[in-house]
Write a structure and sequence with these properties.
Largest sheet: 4 strands, parallel
CATH class of the largest domain: Mainly Alpha
Distance between the termini: 43 Å
Mean pLDDT: 86
Number of helices: 6
Shape: globular
Low-confidence stretches: 1-5
CATH topology of the largest domain: Arc Repressor Mutant, subunit A
Strand content: 15-25%
Number of domains: 2
CATH architecture of the largest domain: Orthogonal Bundle
Radius of gyration: 18 Å
Strand order of the largest sheet: 2-1-3-4
Structural class: alpha/beta
Number of strands: 11
Length: 204
């Protein structure tokens, strides 16, 4: 098990499947040192919420689609280890692309995708440098590349989380709320991440 700087949390209540996942991923991590950090554990609501709030990638291995876990990437039982490895390899490719993105700015802020940090100019009342989760960084990049145009909640959900249409967008709203706390002087009256037409746009 790898759990330092954990970025992927894999929930599975089936003990046999959980052990198989542990063994397979341990071998992958041994053979490939760039393999993403992860931990495998039983599904508990508190742990799930903590992982979502931390911005971790969440993978749920389950026989069906249980209520209350819509923000996880679902792999159905019986588990195909190849499907799990494919998902982790996708995360690796995405993170590599993220690291190659050039810094960009809006308002008094400079976003550094390679280090997932945002530098804040003096006088904003915020810390000089703040950490961003992978998803926060992706959201800012997508909004920036839209050049001030509105990006719908559904589009953000699909591009950042890869969810099918029809899944509720509460998780997008939650991440936007957290981003505003980092970049807005008054999150209740945002000047940079604006809500328009059931979506968001980046100004400044």
């Amino acid at each position: 098990m790898s759990d330092q700087n954990c970025s992927v949390v894999i929930f599975c209540n089936d003990e046999v499947a959980r052990q198989a996942v542990e063994q397979a991923l341990s071998l992958c991590a041994y053979e490939d040192k760039s393999w993403p950090s992860y931990r495998v554990c039983k599904l508990e609501q508190d742990s799930y919420v903590q992982a979502i709030e931390a911005g971790d990638e969440v993978i749920l291995i389950h026989a069906d689609e249980p209520d209350g876990y819509e923000h996880a990437y679902l792999l159905r039982m019986p588990l195909r280890l190849g499907a799990l490895k494919d998902r982790l390899q996708y995360i690796m490719r995405r993170d590599t692309l993220l690291s190659a993105e050039a810094p960009f700015s809006f308002g008094p802020y400079v976003v550094m995708p390679s280090s997932r940090t945002i530098s804040v100019a003096k006088g904003t009342g915020k810390s000089d440098v703040q950490d961003l989760t992978v998803k926060e960084c992706e959201i800012l990049m997508i909004l920036r590349k839209a050049n001030g145009e509105v990006v719908s909640k559904a589009d953000l959900l699909e591009k950042v989380w890869g969810f099918a249409k029809g899944v509720d967008t509460h998780t997008v709203e939650t991440h936007i709320y957290r981003l505003r706390r980092k970049v807005e002087v008054d999150p209740a009256q945002p000047e940079h991440i604006l809500t328009l037409d059931n979506g968001y746009c980046l100004k400044g």
